[in-house]
Design a protein that fits this description.
Blueprint: H1 16-36, H2 40-44, H3 46-71, H4 76-90, H5 94-106, H6 141-160
Helix pairs in contact: 1-3, 1-4, 1-6, 3-6, 4-5, 5-6
Amino acid sequence: MARYEADRDRSEFKYPHDYCLHFFKRMLREWERELDERSDEEKRSAQGKAASTKQKQTRQYVKPLLTLLKDRTISDEILRSTEKIVTLCRSREYVAANQVYLTLAIGNAPWPMGVTMVGIHERAGREKIFSQHTGHVLNDENQRKYIQAMKRLMTYCQHKFPTYGPAACAQRSSSSYTDHFHSHATALCLF
């Protein structure tokens, strides 16, 4: 695991697959180390147990993505988005990374608002809803899981390496699992 300890620049990798793989494995390792360094009392608390469970679940959910990256069998479209996300996270541009993530997850498809079938005729433009613009999260369960895990690792990265102003911080819910990261300068990202 020592090869994932240090941050490495994109230029150090021949393939984008290896660059993304290194980033996600490094974030998993950092998160695991941070959880291991907590006091026994904090580990046994309800919040501590929830944080450990979330990290273990993320590790499990991201395995198919890591395998695709390692085997270099990931689709070009997902790889391009993943590489952009990694690059933006490394440069602490979390809002932009979040935008790329949302496009990857839910796509650019027009979502139906309200009732879509009220008569015998289909609504104009309805075929666009089911076009290739749909997000990958809708494709299958494995993709949904590893895309969700990717978001958790992005959020962890934001807490581990905060920006220096609220404009560059991605919005997050106060009830999210990230509450246990309060010791990592979350005051820098005011919401």
